[in-house]
Amino acid sequence: MSFLDDIRATLTRRDNALSQLLLINVLVFVVLLLIRVTLYLVTAGRLDITLVLEWLAVPSGPWTLLTRPWTLLTYAFVHTDFFHILFNLLNLYWFGSLVREYLGDRKLVSLYILGALAGAALYLLAYNFVPVFAGRPAMLYGASAGVTAIILGAATLLPDYTFSIIFLGPVRIKYIAAVVVLVSIAGIDGGNPGGEIAHLGGALLGFLFIKQLQRGRDLGRPVQAIADWVGGLLSGPRLRVTHRGSAAAAPAASGARKGTLPKPEQEDLDAILDKISRSGYESLSKDEKQRLFKASQK
């Protein structure tokens, strides 16, 4: 299998959201790197990558944003600095693996996208209404807001889960998340205030996402619905194959199309959601978490 075939397989395989997010970020980074070097060689440094970033990054001006609304999403996959993308993707892999294991691929993507949107929203509010930033031209890009949402989401979901950190040993991820938030707050008066503000927007979204999920409300449903719609457009119309058989199969098929679960399975899911409402997500057993995850995929 060729290199391009490997990329195509990764991007098209189902239940592979974490690898897909990592790969998209890497591919965009490589393309921008090639464009940057090409511009330098062809124009002798007269043009740089800013020319391209202006169409991918979120501008601070609302009128400019109206002409480039897609930047609210594209910015979350754009990096131009090696260490920027390295740290973002390491955190995405470590914390994203936890979210994916316990909540599944769809919740992971929802956290990333909603975190990016929340980060962009807080950045725009700050740069248009906070006096120290208002009127200052800026561009926002990078996966940090989406990644921070995943970090806070994982820490809210599994606060006592530990990572082994060099020189420190086992550290609970709730403390790692707290440090991430404090560092972002401390950096607001530094060289990258827009990015730090976006981190805080993503952090708030990650916390709220899990808290609402524990109460039985999935904030990611709009993201999942749009993803399903886009996936349906890309896959094209599906052929329906019908078989002559007993009429008893018809109601079951109709119920499946409406997204309903068989009654015993629905009652089991309701019991798990009630337990979350009473005692929180952490009170679930591993088996109950797996059943909740499987139900969320239907």
From TrEMBL:
GO annotation, biological process:
proteolysis
Start and end residues of each Peptidase S54 rhomboid domain: 68-210
The answer to whether the entry has keyword Repressor is no
Question: Segment Disordered: which positions?
Answer: 247-266
Query: According to the UniProt entry, what is the EC number of this protein?
Result: 3.4.21.105
Task: Cite the Pfam families for this sequence.
Answer: DUF6576, Rhomboid
Domain called DUF6576: residue spans: 265-298
Q: Where is the composition biased (Low complexity)?
A: 247-256
Q: Which domain of life is it from?
A: Bacteria
What PANTHER family does its record include?
PRESENILIN-ASSOCIATED RHOMBOID-LIKE PROTEIN, MITOCHONDRIAL, RHOMBOID PROTEASE
Q: Tell me which family the UniProt entry assigns to this protein.
A: Belongs to the peptidase S54 family.
Report the protein name in the record: Rhomboid family intramembrane serine protease
Q: Which organism is it from?
A: Hymenobacter yonginensis
